[in-house]
Amino acid sequence: MKMKTLMLFLAGFSGIAAAAVRFEAESAIVDENSVQKIPDAGASGGFYVAMKDGNLSFKVPMSAAGFYTLWAGYSQPNDSNGKIQNLSVNGVSKGQISFPYKTSLTSIKASAKIKLEAGDNTIEIQKSWGWVNLDYIEITPYVAAPFSIAPALVNPAASENARKVYGFLRENFQKKTVSGFMTNTVMQNDGKYTPNTVETQTEAAWILNASGKLPALMGVDFLHATGLNSNTEWHQGYTKATLALAEEIFKKGGIPAYCWHWMDPSLAVEAFYTSSSGNTPYTQFNLNKAFLDSTTYAAFDTASAEYRAITRDLDIVAGHLKTLADKGVPVVWRPLHEASGKWFWWGFKGPRATKALYKLMFDRFTGMHGLNNLIWVWTTDEAGDAPDWYPGDAYVDIIGRDYYYYPRIANHGSLVASFEKLKDLFGGTKIITLSENGSVPHPDSMAVDGAGWSYFMPWYGDYAMDGWAHDNTAADWKSILTNNSVITLDKMPGWANYTPPIVSVHPAIGGKREVAVRYAEGYLAVVLTGMGAESVELFNLRGARVGAFDPQGPLGAGAYRFRLAGIEKGLYWVRIKSAAGMTVKPVLVNGNIPSR
Q1: pLDDT score of 15 more than 60
Q2: Cβ burial 217-248 (10 Å sphere, 16+ → b, else e)
Q3: Residue 545 backbone phi and psi in degrees, to 5
Q4: CA angle 184, 186, 189 (to 5 degrees)
Q5: What value does the mean pLDDT take over residues 104-122?
Q6: Per-residue pLDDT at 6
Q7: C-alpha–C-alpha distance, residues 25 and 360, integer Å
Q8: What is the CB neighbour count within 10 angstroms for residue 366?
Q9: Quick one: pLDDT band at residue 512, thresholds 50, 70, 90?
Q10: CA dihedral defined by 580, 581, 587, 591, rounded to 10 degrees?
Q11: Total Cβ atoms within 10 A of residue 19
Q12: Three-state SS for 133?
């Protein structure tokens, strides 16, 4: 195995040196018939490997066991939406690597955290979507960055029970994982649309029989609350049954979680998929037509048929959520999920349209309808443009990741690569969860890797119940739900008895005033503890100002993220002006940030 060691000295970082150990892709070829070794004078070692449908396996000797960061040199000129490959370390899946569209060779942080043993290790990059050109991988020491989770919900008027649920999730984050599952059959086939109970619901009953325990979180869907056929008796019975289950699981001390597969608002077809999904039927609903100007997305056209259809549906669902609010039932609310995949109509027109729709929903639900029982979840992927889709810290309580292995396999690895990627992308200020998944990561694997997912929720049917792919077998459920680090329904405290820990909105340890800065995936993250700021500026080592971030007024204590543009990788200085004076902090930008 050819490898190169690059020594980097970071001036201004108290003399800390970091070693990068490089391994060439051409030395990791498993099957020469499935990949192509291509000469390129600009590539490391003079070659890169067009992976096509093949895999690469790197032999990585390490002098010491521990956690490391994995980098990759690559290009991906085939798909503007990006490509995904699977990552395996020593035979155990660690998640995925998202390769953004790049026509020329560049570098990327492939995984912020992997565990390697002393001696020989095997790192495999395996085909998922395939067709990535890989030049090399590099290993550097892992530098842990602490979470700074928002202490309160984004809705300042949040209900007492919503605050209890969020407080419970926050208190247990990175300590224990809340178990969950998604429902399918929610009502009995008795001609009366009688709701199932928590114990008799199909997936719940199967899991209970397999493990002797019930998960603490139950997922339900407003799938049939709106749409072409939503006024039929069956569809209305379905929605009422989900509401009954949500109320029951909360009364039992559990957590109800809703998503919404939002059917075509124009009522032209009973579908939420777009033409890009490959599914039929599909909707041709055009979200752009709901805006006055679909180049800026600055304002909705309230007279448009599209806007009226959207708000009609929003008001219908708000009415259902209000029935739960009136009964004191909080909801983990996950709208507009998987938008960046563009296979659902709410994501088909791109991130700005989706974000505007999300904010319309947030404002209408919390303002017009007074829905204070919601804990807002944003579902992201791990692509380089994931921050472009993000509605913003002021609108999101929890970051969710929908993770399914492709090709579909049973694998209970920790998914630490995905966990750390989301931590990087969103600055470590939000709870991170597996909002949907196939195989459940085993809690022992999560503990070893430090992948502290808040909760998991395998999808219904043969994902939750042992099926052809054996994603989660009866033995898996028993092993997972009886693990001491997993919270099942019987281990919940009971909401009447639970008091969330008191957390200062802007904590200052020992009254200290502190500033922390870090770079993550194109953003500068700034955390102000016990102090505010008047301005944030970025300087290069020659003293030239290369960025100034206008906060549009004084910043209070808290966590902030600023988008970088036109910045080359290297060391910079962040200068923060506050009433207490000037603070200067170093920050390392690990990749080139193109202008936008």
Answers
A1: no
A2: bbbbbbbbbbbbebeeeebebbbbbbbbbbbb
A3: -75, 125
A4: 110
A5: 93
A6: 35
A7: 47
A8: 20
A9: low
A10: 100
A11: 12
A12: strand
pLDDT tens digits, 458-492: 999 999 999 999 999 999 999 999 999 999 999 99
pLDDT at 52: 93
| Whole-prediction pTM | 0.81
The packing angle between helices 305-326 and 233-251, to 10°, is 40
Q: State yes or no: pLDDT of 25 exceeds 50.
A: yes
Residue for token pair 């690597």? 97
Give the C-alpha separation, 549 to 218, whole Å.
42
Structure tokens at 219: 């997922």
At residue 545, the pLDDT reads: 79
Structure token digits, residue 280: 């039929």
Query: Which residue type, as a one-letter code, is found at position 279?
Result: N
Q: Which helix (H) or strand (E) holds 361?
A: helix 351-363
How many residues make up the chain in this entry? 596
Give the per-residue pLDDT at 474: 98
Alpha-carbon 454 to chain mean position: 11
Query: For residue 35, what are the contacts with CB-CB under 8 A and spacing of at least 6?
Result: 29, 49, 50, 51, 52, 54, 56
**Environment class of 152 (CB within 10 Å of its CB; exposed 0-12, middle 13-18, buried 19+):** middle
313 vs 346: CA distance, rounded Å: 13
- Residue range 31-60, pLDDT digits in tens: 999 999 999 999 999 999 999 999 999 999
Eight-class DSSP state of 434: E
Domains and CATH numbers, the chain: 3-141 (2.60.120.260), 160-335+408-497 (3.20.20.80), 509-589 (2.60.40.3080)
Peptide bond before residue 551 is cis, with ω within 30 degrees of 0: no
Name the residue with tokens 């998987």. 338
Please tell me the predicted confidence (pLDDT) of residue 43: 96
Q: 217 by DSSP, 3-state: which?
A: strand
H runs (alpha helix) in 426-560: 443-449, 474-481
For range 203-227, the mean pLDDT: 98
Q: How many CB atoms lie within 10 A of CB 120?
A: 12
Q: For residue 66, what are the contacts with CB-CB under 8 A and spacing of at least 6?
A: 115, 116, 141, 142
Cis amide leading into 586 (omega within 30): no
